[in-house]
Specification:
Layout (H helix, E strand, L loop, with lengths): L2 E6 L6 H14 L4 E6 L4 H10 L3 E4 L6 H12 L4 E5 L12 H8 L3 E6 L6 H11 L5 E7 L6 H11 L2 E6 L8 E2 L2 E2 L8 H15 L2 H5 L22 E5 L9 H9 L3 E5 L12 E4 L8 H6 L1 H12 L4 E4 L1 H5 L1 E5 L5 E3 L4 E7 L5 E9 L11 E8 L1 E3 L6 E4 L5 E4 L1 E2 L3 E4 L2 E2 L5 H18 L1
Parallel strand pairs: 1-4, 1-5, 2-3, 2-4, 5-6, 6-7, 10-11, 10-12, 12-13, 13-23, 14-16
Antiparallel strand pairs: 8-9, 14-15, 16-19, 17-18, 17-20, 18-24, 20-21, 22-23
Helix pairs in contact: 1-2, 1-7, 5-6
Amino acid sequence: MRRFIIAGTKSGCGKTTVVCALLAALKRRDMAVSAFKCGPDYIDPMFHRKVIGVDSRNLDCFFCDRDTVLALLGEYGSKADISVIEGVMGFYDGTAGSAYSLSEMTGTPAVIVIDCKGMSDSIGAVMNGFLHYRENRIAGFIFNCLPEKLIPLAKKLCDELGTAYFGCLPKNDITIASRHLGLVTADEIADIQAKLDKLGELAEKYINIDKLINICDTPLPGHGTPEIPLFQNTPTIAVAKDRAFCFIYQENIELLEKMGCRIEYFSPLSDSSVPKADGLILCGGYPELYAEHLSANMSMLADVRNNISMGMPTIAECGGFMYLHDELTDGSGSTYAMAGVIKGRAFPTERLQRFGYITLSSVAESLLMRAGGTLRAHEFHYWESTNCGNALTAEKSDERNWECCHTSDSLYAGFPHIYFYSDIGATARFVRKCISYGEKNG
C-alpha cells in the first residue's frame, strides 16, 4: 500500500498548500488518489476533496485505537494507487493525536515541510532538530517558499544530514485566506480551481513526485477490525449540510450508513423544514457568518424547535449548538433570533475559548452516554455561550476540567465535536434511539 505523510515544522508552514499541489499533480497523472487528514480538522479535507473530487477522511490516534486507525486507512486507501496523509500542526505536536504518532502507528514515512521564508543556512538547524529529536520515520524534506537560488543549498543540507531532498515550492502569488478557525473553506474561493491547477503545475516542476510515490509500498501492520452492528430497521437521519453547517466527518456519515441508516441532507439556510426523519444532526460550521439568513428562515427554525420538543434524537455540536440558542450575535455585534431550544445567547470573543482534545464524562444516562460513561471529543471555538450547560464534565490531559453540554434521553448539545468511530457503542446507542422514535411516531 503506497502512502506517505506530509507533515510540517509548525502550523502555517504550508502543509495544506504542498498537499493540494501534490494531489493536483497526482490527479493530472491519472492516478487514483486517497487523501487523509491527521487529527480532527474539518477544513483541510474540504480542499483535498476539491482537488481530487472524492472524499477525504480523518485519521486520529486520540479518538481511535490502533485497530480502528489501521482499519480506516486500509479501507479507504487500499483501492487507491497512492494515499496522501496531511499532518497536523508541527510533526511532533498534539501528543497522542500528532502526525508523529500516526506515522509510528501505521508504519508510514513522513516528509517534513519547512517554511524557508527568512532563512538560509538555518534551514539545516531546523532539519537536524527534527531528524534527531527522537526516533522517527522522517524520509526527507520539502522546502516551501524557497528561493530558486537556494535549491543547491537545500540539496547540500540533505546530503550532509543523510536525508532525502523531495523538492520545493518556490515563492509564488497563490494565497488562501484564513479566518478565526483556520483557512476559509474551499467553496468560498471563487478562483479555487485555477489556484489548484497552478499548484499542480508547480509540484510537477519542482517536487520529485516519482521519488515520493516510491518511498513506501509496504503492507499496513497487522490489525483487527472494529465490530459494527447492522440494524434491521432503517432509520432516516436528517443531517444539516450547507455553507453555514459544513463541519462533518465523512466517516461519521459512513458509519451511520454501515449501521443501516439512510441519510437525508438539508439546508437550514435555504430549506423550509427538516426532512421527514427519525433523527437529527446539526453539525458545526460557521453559522455566525450567516446569522441574518438563518434567522430569517423562520419556518426552518420553528420546525427544528418542534422536532426537538417532540423528542427527536438530536446531536447538535458547536455551530449546531449555537443555532439552537435563543439568540446568536455575529462578528459585527448584531444579534439575531435562533431556534430557541437552548435558553441563552451565543456570542463572539476575542480569543480561542477551548482548544484541543477532551474526555467527556457523564453522571446521568443520556442520548449518547451511559451513567458513569466517558466519550472522547474535541473543542475549537471563538464563540461562547451564556448557557454552555452542565450535564457533562470535560477534562483535558493536564487534568483541567469544566462543566459543559446539555443532554437528555433525546439530546446532545454542546461545543465539543464527536467522532463516531471513537465510540461505536455510543453511535449505536444514537441509532437505537432513532429507531425507537421512528417506531413510536410512525
